[in-house]
């Protein structure tokens, strides 16, 4: 079975969020199951591309509107990621450093999809499955079925995975001239509320769509930034599959980024050594339990609540824990967090930006991970945390509700149902009080480190879906 995953992110080539982690892991685990899985993504001017060997396997040309675009298809030579990796390079379009935030990114995504189709036609490539990740590649199923030039792919089965339904790629109809010629009678499949909506087109035209947790699938039926009725109407072809984590990368016993490796038997002591080393560089007290937040400074992630939460803990729960924040994003949120740093709050520190090695170190050092997300389709941070013996404190939404069962319900984490600062503080206090019972806390560490959130189970579910479609 030949499967192509199409995405604009893939770890370790280009990562902005959890999409990259999924696309960097799922094909590898599918390959272990005997699937001939590959990833196609844009070429980026980034270290991975410069540091590895690539062969040019095809060069071609197409017109995007009146603009002639030349493109090259690069294949990573050694399959170092455990699957075939193809990069599409288009000078002036797909040859930049960043993944997002360019004013012409809509045109970039159209060009990427058009180049893939052009390459498939030139080389007579007809896969069994084309797996499209998020709206950036949302036009593929429509163009495969209804484009005049590429409908030789009409019978190829397509799977869409919705990693975040809030972002949809809205495009004005004036941009339709940039698309490959298509059956104009089918224009309604592209349209939603008077705009070309790639995510809507993806859901309408794919053969099956998945979400990254069961809980998020249910949430999309009632809140999907205007597409909730579409998701509900197409529910007959939907399935929720919780993301996994790549144990080759996220494993405290083998993680080369850590100061001290540890396993089930040595978890408490190993985490303490990592925390003590962290305290030598940052303003935390290793004698106190450590609470961390790791993520984007975005309201979606609840990061706007962090300053109020920290001030509330300082006032109402002083001297009981250390706090560390790793993140960047919204300038207004970042400015408020910076004000907290300027206040010289005791046992509190921040790293502005994102550092992959530091993230690993924090998971290994922390006792608690805070996730006050408003929206969390699956969430990977809580899965990483549990693998590293760190107790998650989460808002019960989406995948967080699916994967973190509260201690009060014979589970292993702490949840809260509202985003009121007082309720979040109560959840944190409950976690700290649990931590102070050393034997219970260590037993829970062993429990959460033993949970199976590997990609093995999830990859098998995707394979079952593919087989059903074929």
TrEMBL record:
Pathway entry: Glycan biosynthesis; glycogen biosynthesis
Similarity-based family: Belongs to the glycosyltransferase 1 family. Bacterial/plant glycogen synthase subfamily.
The protein, known as: Glycogen synthase
Coiled coil: none
Organism for this UniProt entry: Sphingobacterium detergens
Keywords associated with the record: Glycogen biosynthesis, Glycosyltransferase, Transferase
Enzyme Commission no: 2.4.1.21
Cross-referenced Pfam families: Glyco_transf_5, Glycos_transf_1
GO biological process: one example: glycogen biosynthetic process
Keyword Cell cycle: no
């Amino acid at each position: 079975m030949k499967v192509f995953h199409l995405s604009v992110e893939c770890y370790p080539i280009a990562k902005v969020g959890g999409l990259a982690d999924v696309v960097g892991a799922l094909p590898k685990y599918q390959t272990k199951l005997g699937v001939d899985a590959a990833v196609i993504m844009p070429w980026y001017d980034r270290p991975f591309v410069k540091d590895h060997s690539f062969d040019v396997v095809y060069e071609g040309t197409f017109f995007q509107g009146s603009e002639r675009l030349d493109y090259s298809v690069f294949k990573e030579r050694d399959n170092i990621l455990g699957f075939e990796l193809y990069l599409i390079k288009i000078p002036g379009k797909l040859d930049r450093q960043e993944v997002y935030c360019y004013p012409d990114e809509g045109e970039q995504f159209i060009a990427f999809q058009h180049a893939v189709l052009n390459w498939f036609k030139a080389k007579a490539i007809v896969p069994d499955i084309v797996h499209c990740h998020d709206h950036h590649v949302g036009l593929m199923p429509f163009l495969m079925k209804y484009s005049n030039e590429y409908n030789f792919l009409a019978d190829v089965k397509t799977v869409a995975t919705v990693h975040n339904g809030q972002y949809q790629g809205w495009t004005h109809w004036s941009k339709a001239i940039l698309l490959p010629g298509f059956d104009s009678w089918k224009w309604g499949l592209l349209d939603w509320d008077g705009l070309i909506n790639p995510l809507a087109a993806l859901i309408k035209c794919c053969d099956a769509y998945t979400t990254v947790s069961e809980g998020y699938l249910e949430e999309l039926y009632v809140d999907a930034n205007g597409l909730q009725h579409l998701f509900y109407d197409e529910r007959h072809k939907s399935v929720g599959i919780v993301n996994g984590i790549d144990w080759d990368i996220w494993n405290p016993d083998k993680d080369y980024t850590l100061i001290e490796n540890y396993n089930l038997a040595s978890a408490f002591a190993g985490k303490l050594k990592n925390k003590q080393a962290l305290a030598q560089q940052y303003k935390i007290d290793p004698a106190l339990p450590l609470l961390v937040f790791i993520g984007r400074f975005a309201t979606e992630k609840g990061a706007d609540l962090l300053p109020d939460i920290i001030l509330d803990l300082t006032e109402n729960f002083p001297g009981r824990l250390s706090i560390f924040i790793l993140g960047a994003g919204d300038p207004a949120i970042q400015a408020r967090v910076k004000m907290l740093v300027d206040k010289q709050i005791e046992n509190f520190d921040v790293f502005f930006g994102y550092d992959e090695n530091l993230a690993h170190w924090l998971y290994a050092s922390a006792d608690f991970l805070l996730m006050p997300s408003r929206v969390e389709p699956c969430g990977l941070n809580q899965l990483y945390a549990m693998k590293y013996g760190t107790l998650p404190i989460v808002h019960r939404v989406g995948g967080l509700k699916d994967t973190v069962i509260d201690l009060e319900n014979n589970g292993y984490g702490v949840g809260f149902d509202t985003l009121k600062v007082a309720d979040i503080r109560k959840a944190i206090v409950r976690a700290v009080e649990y931590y102070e019972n050393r034997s219970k806390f260590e037993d829970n560490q062993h429990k959460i480190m033993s949970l199976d959130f590997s990609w093995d189970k999830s990859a098998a579910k995707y394979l079952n879906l593919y087989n059903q479609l074929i």
